[in-house]
Amino acid sequence: MTIDLTPYLPSQGPKYLAIARALAEAIRQGELTPGTRLPPHRCLADALAVSVQTVSRAYAQAEKMGLVQARVGSGTWINTLDDSQEAEYLRSADLPTEGAPVDLSIAHPVCPPGHHLRFRETLREVADSAHPDAIDACRPIAGLAHQRERASHWLQETLGVPGTPDDRVLCNGAAHGVMLAIATLVQHGDVVLTEALTDHGLIALSRTLGLQLRGVAIDEQGVIPEALDAACRRYHPRAVCLTPTQHNPTGATMDADRRDAIAEVLARHGTWLIEDDTHALLEPPGLTPLTARLPRQSFHVTSLTKATVPGLRAGYLSVPRGQLHHTLPRLRATSWMATPLIFEIADRWLADGSVEALAEEQRQLLAERQQLTRSRLQGHVMASRPTGLHVWLALPRAWRAEELQQQALREGLAIATAQPFMVGQGAPPQRVRLSLGAENDLERFDQGLTILARLLGEAPPPMLQNV
């Protein structure tokens, strides 16, 4: 077959990476569909006026990205798997632990032995005295009444999220909450705006639900108000999905003035807001969510996962008054109701102060790791929050992000590039995201930083030089 990748080719970067990214964008736009056979290497090389070697490297890179599948004797085909565009660092997360690389790639809180002990103790308490409804209930769909009441009080008093228990929905983690909010608002083909770099889960969700995701320019505080205003005028979006606090992957966090400006733009256009506030507890108290400024047009999502223990997938979705009856059918269709026993643990931790204690400990642990990272990578440009889960590291001119990622993995270190977080086409920033929590052992974490510091001070191996 013949395909025209020219409209999708970014103007910068090595040619083989440009072709791989063009394939990704053509797939995302629906121009290349699952099961399509790609042209032979020489045919595409002739069409793009590049070498056969460049096309071979592009196809190999596309296969690493999960976009295509090479079949011996049959050619290269667009992947038919639902997770064909899943980030490489997520696909490699199931490697055996023995000999596994130091993991600075996955968003994960620090989970020391004391956290495990507290979780086990609470499990024993729940085994002895769980609320009867947590064992045998299958309604109300939005969650058990006592769990929603406790959560509503906590959301209002600690995070500043307006609403009553009747406005809260318990869900299986923040990703589930975002999906429920989007499914409540958006129809197939609708436009949703988000940051130009955004959580890879939202990108995957846009493909699953068939919505058109459009990126808006960001700076060190997240979405730029003027850019958001222009995008609203251009696209007339059904909703805007934003992460104002510790944005993933950059760590950008809006101050009060920026939040006021964003809220004014959304209010003027009457556009629904979905606020992903998953990292709220990783910041010291004091930040007021965007939802508090737009209570009648905002869906607020948060969870306990990033501040307590990863296994406590307790998510909380707050919906505007009058929208609950639209959300509950989506909840019923996806999981009937959130797992009551998980929320029995969350309810006890909210009641006895464990959530606040664990969140404070998490902030201290991350602050220690932020300081260690800055010490080990001194002299390099990076963006982060003092208690942030991530570091957004700029690379020296000699390195390309994908090449550093590959070389680091060869040397026993897993990191994430900007590619999985890109919305739309264009050259991704030459940065990598370092996630600071997955390695509970501080010595092993430091070992990973040492590997990275050494690589950053060296030139790429010859085999990684640009074509």
Automatic annotation (TrEMBL):
Classification via InterPro entries: Aminotransferase_I/II_large, HTH_trans_reg/aminotransferase, PyrdxlP-dep_Trfase, PyrdxlP-dep_Trfase_major, PyrdxlP-dep_Trfase_small, Tscrpt_reg_HTH_GntR, WH-like_DNA-bd_sf, WH_DNA-bd_sf
Keyword Chloroplast: no
Sequence intervals crossing the membrane: none
Keyword Lipoprotein belongs to the record: no
MF terms (GO), sorted A to Z: DNA binding; DNA-binding transcription factor activity; pyridoxal phosphate binding
Family designation: In the C-terminal section; belongs to the class-I pyridoxal-phosphate-dependent aminotransferase family.
Annotated protein name in UniProt: Transcriptional regulator, GntR family
Organism, scientific name: Chromohalobacter israelensis (strain ATCC BAA-138 / DSM 3043 / CIP 106854 / NCIMB 13768 / 1H11)
